Amino acid sequence: MASGGLQLMGFVLAFLGWIGIIISTAMPQWKMASYAGDNIVTAQALYEGLWMSCAMQSTGQIQCKVYDSLLKLESSLQATRALMVAAILLGLVAIFIAVIGMKCMKCMEDDQVKKMRMAIFGGVIFIIAGMAALVATSWYGNRVARAFYDPFTPVNTRFEFGSALFVGWAAASLAILGGSFLCCSCPRRETSYPPSRGYPKNAPSTGKDYV
């Protein structure tokens, strides 16, 4: 029962992490314009994401523009896109596989060994998906930090971490943690020892055994 609860908790955490990865990928706030150290008074906030750039006016109105051409984008941004999309697709595959291996499901009840392996395999795919999202967000964040501290970057074009990065980091951590729980939720096989053999009982001696 304890392993079943750990398995269910791992699946829920991994599923929430997968949802967070989707949200992070769709959010436009991967980096936001920074005015630290500058006295510029602006009536809008600038955001850039993986798919579009947005400007929010002081009135609350948001205007977004989707990137026109894929080929004009930086190779690092294209790689970040690919990693996040791969993490989403891997998470989708992991959900289907892990559901089959859940103890609360009736699929493959006749073969508990294969059912256990399906749960472990789903957990491994969740971990890979979380690692892909973690690499993508960390790589993007490193680029933002390097550009921010670059002395050749103009002050009015510097960006800081956006909220999508923090969502992505949290989601990747949940996916990795949930996948680890899925891999550790299966009970260990108990060591079986061969049954001890009893000593044969001595037959009652008779006088015929002696000459």
From TrEMBL:
Keyword annotations: Cell junction, Cell membrane, Membrane, Tight junction, Transmembrane, Transmembrane helix
Record localization: Cell junction, Tight junction; Cell membrane
Pfam families in alphabetical order: PMP22_Claudin
One term under GO cellular component: plasma membrane
Protein purpose: Claudins function as major constituents of the tight junction complexes that regulate the permeability of epithelia.
Principal location class: other
Gene encoding the protein: Cldn1
GO molecular function terms attached to this record: structural molecule activity
Membrane topology: Multi-pass membrane protein
Organism, as annotated: Crotophaga sulcirostris
Lineage: Eukaryota, Metazoa, Chordata, Craniata, Vertebrata
Name of the protein: Claudin
Transmembrane parts of this sequence: 7-27, 79-100, 120-141, 161-184
Superkingdom in the source lineage: Eukaryota
Residue numbers spanned by region Disordered: 191-211
InterPro entries found in the cross-reference section: Claudin, Claudin1, Claudin_CS, PMP22/EMP/MP20/Claudin
Keyword flag Transmembrane helix: yes
